[in-house]
Structure formats: C-alpha cells, structure tokens
Design goal:
By secondary structure, this protein is mostly helical. It contains three helices and no strands.
C-alpha cells in the first residue's frame, strides 16, 4: 500500500497539469501543419523561386560565354 501512495501524487499532478498542456500543444501544432503555408511564407517561396530562375539564367549565360571564350573549360572542371 505504501508504494501506491508514493505514485498517487505524481500521477494526479501529471493528469491535472502536464496531460492537458500536452494535448493542447499537440493539437495546436497539428492545426498549423494542416493549414499549410502562411501568406508571408507563400510570398517568400515565390520570391525564392524567382531568384532561382534568374540564377539559372545567369549560369546558362556564363556557360555560353565560356563555351565561346574557352571551349575546353568543361573538360577541365569535370
């Protein structure tokens, strides 16, 4: 009986404090995940995609220039 009395207080504290907070935080995070990207995150994603496209165009231009100026450059860096 003595062993059971020692566990009663921590179990009550856990059930009264920790478990409800745990459930609230768990379902709040699930809700945020299911909502998808915020408007700000969506704008950032579009901006990064545009920058990536510009960078790809610049790389293509640089490769074209290098092909004209130094046709053997690809073999040197492979």
């Amino acid at each position: 009986m003595m062993d059971l009395d020692i566990l009663v207080a921590p179990i009550i504290i856990f059930m009264a404090v920790v478990a409800p907070l745990w459930l609230i935080l768990h379902y709040r995070s699930k809700k945020q995940v299911s909502q998808g990207l915020s408007e700000h995150e969506h704008r950032q994603l579009i901006e990064l995609a545009n920058k990536a496209e510009k960078m790809a165009e610049r790389v293509e231009t640089l490769e074209a220039l290098l092909d004209q100026e130094a046709p053997q450059w690809r073999r040197k860096y492979e």
